[in-house]
Amino acid sequence: MSATQEKPMTLKSLSHKKDNLSGGHRMCSGCGAPTVVRQVLLAIDEPVVIANATGCLEVSTCLFPYTAWRVPWMHSAFENAAATASGIETMYRSLRKQGKLKKEMKFIAFGGDGGTYDIGFQALSGAMERGHQLLYICYDNGAYMNTGIQRSSATPMGADTTTQPVGSKIPGKTVRRKDLTRIMAAHNVAYAAQASPHNWRDLMTKVKKALATNGPAYMGIMAPCNRGWRTQTNDSILLSRLAVDTCYWPLYEVEGGKWTINYDPKDKKKPIAEWLKPQGRFKHLFAPGNEALLERFQKLVDDDWESLQKLAAAFGAK
Amino acid sequence: MKQMNWKELPHAGTVLKAGNANEYKTGSWRTYKPKWVEENCIQCLFCWIYCPDSAVVVKDEKMTGFDYDHCKGCGVCAMECPGKKGNKAIVMEEEGK
Questions:
Q1: Which residue of A has its CA nearest to B76?
Q2: What's the gap between Cα A74 and its chain centre?
Q3: In which element (H, E) is residue A51 found?
Q4: ipTM surpasses cut 0.90
Q5: In the Cβ-directed half-sphere of B35, how many Cα atoms lie within 13 Å?
Q6: What CATH code would you report for A2-315?
Q7: What's the pLDDT tens digit per position in A31-89?
Q8: Domain with B56 in it
Q9: What part of B 55-74 touches A (C-beta under 8 Å)?
Q10: Does the distance separating the beta carbons of A64 and B53 come in below 8 Å?
Q11: Is residue B41 part of a domain?
């Protein structure tokens, strides 16, 4: 992995690079997604082409006649960011073969959790199976935030959303979220990982690794949404850190079938309540009589963390 | 911005000027304004890497202030600022005061 063995990345050295997402985009104040995008783009040295699924990121960064992107960028529909990127990558390979293009280029598709876990899932699964040389990045805020906080299959159990609101009959979302990073790993992709913007070095190293592998790659990146999560505008990084420290969003990677946990809080693992408490969408979990819900949430997190540790032990570096 | 007529509009709604959203000012969204207290700044650049609006200006590896044309006043920079000896180098102040 030559890309990762260069001199260590520092913020000082990165600050010389051009910011490829300009200010003036219309993402909400304090949104986690543009921070994720800036870090991803700063990690890339080669020319890159982006395909973007419909979602907050797409509508807010490209309001005609403005674009916040300083790299070639394309949007076509909600469900097909992975298919769009596949097409661009295939055209690139063809042009290279014909000798019409000499440059080495990279391809990234961005989607929110709605455009990735639900609507774009079939296109994503297909792109990964066909083995395109592209990186699909899902910035995961756990609901359809762009259209008004409708639940998605990435929404955590118990969250209050406008399509499964908390009331006398149901306590928010009744089922647990699906674990897309593991589903992508089950596609036997070249690289699958989870990252979080609070740990910029880990995130950027993973982007470099993903783009250097020979084959399709997937990354799920935590992107807190203060509007949908009912939190303050200043805590997106704080909440992404807590998501990792509570093991709700463990940092791990699956590289050619080898599972590695990149950050293990060990005895510093925090109770999930610390991540849930600041979020208004989980307020009811702390109401009297709902202790069982909170316990169930903790158990889901603990079980997932335990099974991940088993995977890392069984299929990790020997 | 001048409205384009149908002859001037690019095909398929493409935007040919990369990053021209920079011409659009989002600074008026602010309720709170970040203030840089230089003596408490340790130049860790956390504010720069975490800013969602590319509104922290860094020159020669040093934080030099804010781009108030684009800063939306979310306060992530102030929250993440480690400061010096417990004193933050970025504090949020009410806009217009």
A1: A234
A2: 19
A3: strand A48-52
A4: yes
A5: 12
A6: 3.40.50.970
A7: 999 999 999 999 999 999 999 999 999 999 999 999 999 999 999 999 999 999 999 99
A8: 24-94
A9: 55, 58, 61, 67, 69-74
A10: no
A11: yes
